[in-house]
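Contributing new records

If you add data, match the layout below exactly. Sequence lines come first and carry their own label; structure lines follow with theirs. Keep one chain per record. Anything else will be rejected by the validation script.
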Amino acid sequence: MRTVNVHEAKTHFSRLIDAAHAGETIVVAKGGRPWARLVPLEAAVAVRQPGVLTGVLRLPPPEVLLEPLPEEELAELDRPLP
């Protein structure tokens, strides 16, 4: 953990946030007393919740999903987007 004063933090802010992003903790001191802390953000972790769409989303049976697409739908897939 590194401690810097407010003046140094203002002067070298870009370097300090790069160091924080790299995992270092930087304490900013004002008047010789710890005032704020720069720390890296933790990556957001997506939490899976099985069953959230139960009763909301209904899929057709697998044999229907595996049927070939009609010719007109296949032709639409080849058409360029607007």
